[in-house]
Amino acid sequence: MLRPGATDPKGLPLIRRRTLLTTALAATAAIGLAACTDDGDGSGASDAGGASDGGGDALAGVTVSEDLGAEPTVEFSAPLEITSAAAEVVVTGDGDTIAEGDTVIWRHMYVDASSGETLQSWWQGGPAGGVQVTADSIGQAAFDVFTSMAVGSRFMMAGWQQGNDGQAYALLQVADVDRVVSPLRAEGEPGSPSGTFPAVTLDEDGAPALDAPPEGEAPTATVREELLVGTGETTRSGDYLTMHYTGWKWSDGSPFDSSWERGAPFSFVQGEGQVIQGWDENLLDLAVGSQVMLVIPPGEAYDQGELADETLVFVVDILDAAPAGE
């Protein structure tokens, strides 16, 4: 999990890496997305149960309930040995087939393969989850299954997650695919920005740009302005929030990070310290479909790395907000 101040090997602050290994593993905390492989290569061939990396035998010993209206029950003889990544469909959905590049949202649970203990479950108040379906992000084994799976399906995956202690933990993930995020840009009605900050222009795909560098004294507390006002559900703490964003330095107006350039929306659990304070506290109570500008001072952004002491300007499109279970 990358919190404010975390840096990559070059010393650049990060909000989160685009990988399935993103959050700390702990029975009392969100454990993020179960990984198919530690390095994400997931190479392997398909079998009758789906796709695997030789780990199909592990899933063959697992039974998952098929009632999509209830929390899954997962049964196996513990400890379950997972020697390679594996993934397969448990129940086939009746929605559209998932395509390469789709960003999917699911309701999920994680089970410790060594003990059979449920570590986290949406059905018990845990967060929702999701991922962009590319071979690079989820591994080839999972990619082969996902791109033959329909929305509404229940799937299971076997893999590993690295904890804060550096140890890899064997996990089973069971999830019900709820939807594909669409559209991948804000489409709200025009807001009423103050005019204090640079105007924002959009390209054909919706990616934002500033029409001029910021001027004058930077604010000392985060300022939020709604550029577009959406009509969807309102974001709340605990939501699995999916968004597009671009960030610029106040000092010279130069861009330093953009999910648009990576071609992949960014997701995190709102209000759990997974991102900078200026995001965690100021992306609440917004309708999905909104676009906001956040001007964030250093104390609510990064305190080390290249962006230390920089006031940052973000333009954020709120694409989806999946609530935690109840």
Fold and architecture overview:
Keywords: Isomerase, Rotamase, Signal. InterPro entries: FKBP2/11, PPIase_dom_sf, PPIase_FKBP_dom, TAT_signal. It is an enzyme of class 5 (isomerase). With 326 residues, the chain is mainly beta. The protein folds into 2 domains: 46-180, Chitinase A, domain 3 (Roll); 189-322, Chitinase A, domain 3 (Roll), CATH 3.10.50.40. It has 5 helices and 19 strands. The longest helix is centred in the middle third of the chain and has 7 residues, at 140-146.
CATH architecture of the largest domain: Roll
Helix content: under 10%
Strand content: 25-35%
The top level CATH class name of the largest domain: Alpha Beta
Which descriptors apply to this entry?
mainly beta; Chitinase A, domain 3; 2 domains; eight-stranded antiparallel β-sheet; signal; rotamase; PPIase_dom_sf; isomerase; FKBP2/11
Sequence-ordered SSE layout with sheet pairings:
Elements: E1 46-47, E2 50-52, H1 56-60, E3 63-64, E4 74-75, E5 86-91, E6 103-112, E7 118-121, E8 129-132, H2 135-138, H3 140-146, E9 154-162, E10 168-180, E11 189-190, E12 200-202, E13 208-210, E14 223-229, E15 240-249, E16 255-258, H4 259-262, E17 266-269, H5 277-280, E18 291-296, E19 312-322
Antiparallel strand pairs: 1-2, 2-5, 3-4, 5-9, 6-7, 6-8, 6-10, 9-10, 11-14, 12-13, 14-18, 15-16, 15-17, 15-19, 18-19
